[in-house]
Amino acid sequence: MPEGHIIHRLARENHRAFADRPVRVSSPQGRFAEGAALLDGRTLDETEAHGKHLFLGFGDDWLHIHLGLYGNFAFGTGEVPAPVGEVRLRMANDEGWADLRGPNTCELLGPGEKKAVHNRLGPDPLRPDADPEAAWRRMARSSTTVAALLMDQKVLAGVGNVYRAEVLFRLGISPHRAGKDVTRAEWDAIWADLVALMHEGVGAGRIDTVRPEHTPEAMGRPPRVDDHGGEVYVYRRTGMPCLVCETPVRTESLVSRNLFWCPGCQQR
Question: E strands within the chain?
Fold first, then answer.
């Protein structure tokens, strides 16, 4: 599932491609035909992301998209091609087009319904209006592990498996600690690191978390080869030596997701 930095990139890309101009909207697959008909020919006013949720605003109507595990956007320029595959949503103008396939959610919301989505989400480190205090209050009273809390979208919005694993490693925090045992200083460090890393991810379009001294160039090692891209410390490095202490990276299942950590570096 795409993490929050990808959704913020999609908000920017949709704004660049379609904002402030009438948009042709259709649903070649047919599953969003009624909603597409209501938007067809209208002007896209604004785009917004909150965590893993994308919002495209057409006046008082908001197109709400959640990609889920299999959703994806494809953008193109020039002549609009014939649809390929199950295209839930197509947007187009004279300059280009975008196709949405396989989303978990593609629906129209009014302002009140949109607000309800925001209200059930935690603060997003990529949003300027984010309130880290709200996440801290939930973490400070929870017996749930810090690793599970960082993935709970009601606590923090947009953080996924990669950022969760990497931030805990970078700060030397055991993923098994209860949220209530995380100190305020540690929480402030977690939030600051997420803000910095996720903003870098928006710009680069991939997740890089290793510090300069641990890059392939600095260490004389081969670059990481993985379909997620980016240089990381523990994510998907099960059994491989830690880049810092050489202890084999471990993994286990936590809340139906793979958890990666270094038992040598993450003892706090």
Answer: 24-26, 46-50, 53-58, 61-66, 72-77, 87-92, 96-101, 105-109, 250-254, 257-261
Q: Given pLDDT bands bounded at 50, 70 and 90, which one contains residue 15?
A: very high
Structure tokens at 194: 């997420």
When the pLDDT of each residue in the chain is averaged and rounded to a whole number, the result is 96
Prediction pTM value: 0.95
Active-site residue 52, yes or no?
yes
Q: Is 166 in the active site?
A: no
d(CA 197, CA 3): 12
The DSSP call for residue 250 is: E
Domains (ranges, CATH) in the chain? 4-119 (3.20.190.10), 132-261 (1.10.8.50)
DSSP state of 81: P
pLDDT score of 49: 98
pLDDT at res. 228: 72
92/254: higher pLDDT: 92
| pLDDT value for 268 | 78
Question: 9, 28, 52, 170: which one is catalytic?
Answer: 52
Q: List Cα–Cα distances, 183 to 42, 107, 130, in angstroms.
A: 50, 40, 20
CA angle 154, 69, 172 (to 5 degrees): 55
Give catalytic status of residue 154 as yes or no.
no
Which of the following is catalytic: 24, 42, 177, 257? 257
Three-state SS for 54? strand
Nearest-angstrom CA–CA distance, 230 and 206: 6
